[in-house]
Amino acid sequence: MPLHHDSFAPLDPGRRVLMGPGPSDMHPRVYQAMGAPLTGHLDPYFIGVMDDTKALLRYVFQTENAMTLAISATGSAGMETCICNLVEPGDEVLICVGGVFGDRMAQMVERHGGRLIRLEGEPGRPFTPEQVRHALDGCRPKVVGLVHAETSTGVLQPLEEIIPVIHEHGALVLVDTVASLGGTPVKVDAWGIDVCYTGSQKCLSAPPGLAPLTLNGRALEAIAARKTPVDSWYMDLSLINAYWDGDRTYHHTAPVSLFYALREALVLIHEEGLENGHRRHAANYEAFRAGIDAMGLAFFVDPPHRAPTINPVLAPEGIDEAAVRSRLLKDYGLELGGGLGALKGKAWRVGLMGQSSQRDHVILCLGALEQALRAEGSEVAESGVSAASAVYAGTGTA
Amino acid sequence: MPLHHDSFAPLDPGRRVLMGPGPSDMHPRVYQAMGAPLTGHLDPYFIGVMDDTKALLRYVFQTENAMTLAISATGSAGMETCICNLVEPGDEVLICVGGVFGDRMAQMVERHGGRLIRLEGEPGRPFTPEQVRHALDGCRPKVVGLVHAETSTGVLQPLEEIIPVIHEHGALVLVDTVASLGGTPVKVDAWGIDVCYTGSQKCLSAPPGLAPLTLNGRALEAIAARKTPVDSWYMDLSLINAYWDGDRTYHHTAPVSLFYALREALVLIHEEGLENGHRRHAANYEAFRAGIDAMGLAFFVDPPHRAPTINPVLAPEGIDEAAVRSRLLKDYGLELGGGLGALKGKAWRVGLMGQSSQRDHVILCLGALEQALRAEGSEVAESGVSAASAVYAGTGTA
Questions:
Q1: Do A13 and B199 touch (CB under 8 A)?
Q2: Interface of A with B in 118-147 (CB under 8 A)
Q3: Using CA atoms, how far apart are residues A172 and A185, in angstroms rounded to an integer?
Q4: pLDDT of A306-330, one tens digit each?
Q5: CA dihedral A125, A129, A135, A140 (to 10 degrees)
Q6: Which residues, 6+ apart, have CB-to-CB distance to B373 below 8 Å?
Q7: Contact state of A1 with B41 under an 8 Å Cβ cutoff
């Protein structure tokens, strides 16, 4: 089979400013760490990297859970790992579906034979404790699944009031923190989250390809009480944990370079301090919000329910959102996300996550968006850059 | 949750020479490619990287198969992706089990509800067409699974005579080429392999974390004729292929950096030429074999059945194989694999795969092994380095 090409151009993606729904920008130290010499996946040095990663993940998840590790695949595999270990055929599972990722959870429950109960959310709004209580009055699920920051809508789900309602009904609480962990508080132990997963490439600012997760004792008991084996070998947590803990039994060949990078990204979060990082994310969101408001653009979600990490901004009437994104990519190397699900073709999704939650990113994004909108023939009310700058200077309001 | 550490040491694994069962050494250009700036997973540049990767994988697999791509997880996930797409509950599947990876295939068939028929191999020997024919006379499987180079034993399974026997019985042929593809011929189309997968980190010498695979039209028809959905969302090939082909529908966030690296590793294979690479692997195996024979050490597998890529060498009576490996790692940064499965504690597994199949690696390995064996109190018959050098000089015989 001869190739139709004689040669391939050297790899040269150019420069990007990543402000979409992830991957986010990576710190130069994370690039450096990723390029460290490979070791084997059972090398004593690499076992130490795994141990550091586990300790740092406990810090970021705010948990003492023994089973805290990262799956060797992307965030959606983290989601499926949690579901296929918790759910046996016939188990009743309630999923709160407020967007694409809640819907993905629901699809996975059905793939693994669970009896799915869907609680549909209202567009752009979080679930209330009353809604969940009402749904739980009619069923007795083993697990209730929620998305903390729904990447497709930008809604941040308050968890502290809802989780006790779920526990009153005896169900395990499964939370997706793919777009929140590291960017806004996630207190696994204090809030009583039983099972929690995330992705490496959003607020953690590591490369995509790993899915950290953590399970408490209640969740492990439920898994131990299964009557049937987990229906995936690769995602069976008992096999994965035997590699991460205890006798380090070979399960799969860990993506060594990605773990180097994840460890370094977590060390950076630890150096900044988790709470300082949350404040940074909040401050950059406030400046971004002031800029978008000044420009006369509209967010999809009302202010109290917005995630500080990912926000859909509605494209003005008559403006082709994809054309604006192409222009931003071409002129500035700036990547925004397109709308997903119900917002497809109607919004830009702007990520302010991890290393992409920075003052320079916010100012560039607002300035570039203004230029691109004018070029596409749209009005811009006021300068978003000026409004954001005033917030940073402490003289403006968000 | 305060961390128990105040700070974490900078990442510094030191230098390794990787001659275990994988990961193998990576070319400096692969490290460089991996460190290129991240783009988004739907960025036009990254789509081009995926297209290049697909074309290059077709070259390496020697196939025209439209569905040729890489799974965003490790080789074992590639194995499970093939099995869970091909096998529905109740389907009869014959697995030829000659070691740990054949056994892993068998376990996965059961996890996904297949009716497993195990054909057990003889230790250190490949399956004969007669054995397979005999097994097939008593059943009517939908799929027959084989491992080309069994990483746990070092046996290379001749495929050209066995595959026609399987096709006579109407079954699909599933082949694991994790430890062979790129190091020894694998002719997917010419040999009639219906489904074939590999890992990124062995003879391809890319970082671990991706699993290339290819399926022909017969296999896709079998998948299209399923009565039930695939029991994994992450591994559902119809969803994965919609991201790799056609309308590029978002499925998961691809590990962008790993794909940069895989593409570069494949470009290197293309530049060398696949057949030249196979000759290099064969020549380095011959020199290594001469050295091991001269030293009075024994291979586990008889010469005609050995994979040129991975070989267990039996530890002499009374020698602690783990102590030798620790010494090699400490004194030379040289990593060999320990025995796996039936060979645990009894052998070293020496990989001569991809960038680790090099003259300098062979000479270092033989020299270091001689020093370590003497240090552990073992006799060494003759110099392995001299014997291998003579082969390279064309004055010795393997």
A1: no
A2: none
A3: 20
A4: 999 999 999 999 999 999 999 999 9
A5: 140
A6: B295, B316, B319, B324, B379, B380
A7: no
Cα distances from A123 to residues A292, A384, B357, in angstroms, run 21, 27, 57
Q: CA A190, CA A135: separation in Å to the nearest integer?
A: 24
The interface residues of chain A toward chain B in range 336-395, judged by CB-CB distance below 8 A, are 337, 340
CA distance A63 to chain B (A): 6
C-alpha to C-alpha distances, A382 to A295, A370, A372, A385, B210, nearest whole angstrom: 5, 9, 14, 9, 47
Q: What is the mean pLDDT of residues A29-47?
A: 97
H-only helix segments in chain B: 28-34, 44-61, 75-86, 100-111, 129-137, 162-168, 188-191, 217-224, 237-244, 256-272, 274-294, 321-332, 359-375, 384-393
Assess A59–B contact: CB distance below 8 Å, yes or no: yes
Contact in structure between B150 and B122 (CB atoms under 8 Å): no
Q: Rounded to the nearest 10 degrees, what angle do helices A274-294 and A359-375 cross at?
A: 20
Is residue A353 within 8 Å of A277, Cβ to Cβ?
no
Closest CA to B172 of B237, B219, B236, B131: B219
Q: Whose structure tokens read 């056994």? A: B103
Contacts of B84 in chain A (CB under 8 A): 232
Helix (H) or strand (E) holding A290: helix A274-294
pLDDT of residue B398: 67
Which contiguous run of DSSP H or E holds residue A240? helix A237-244
Query: Whole-model pTM?
Result: 0.97
| AA identity, residue A263 | R
- Count the neighbouring beta carbons within 10 Å of the beta carbon of residue B236: 20
Question: 3-class SS at B340?
Answer: coil
Identify which of B45, B59, B111 has the shortest CB distance to residue A233.
Answer: B111
Q: What is the pLDDT of residues B93-133, one digit of tens each?
A: 999 999 999 999 999 999 999 999 999 999 899 999 999 99
Residues in B closer than 8 angstroms to A38, CB to CB, are 13, 16, 18, 23, 25-26, 207
Task: State the pLDDT at residue A296.
Answer: 97
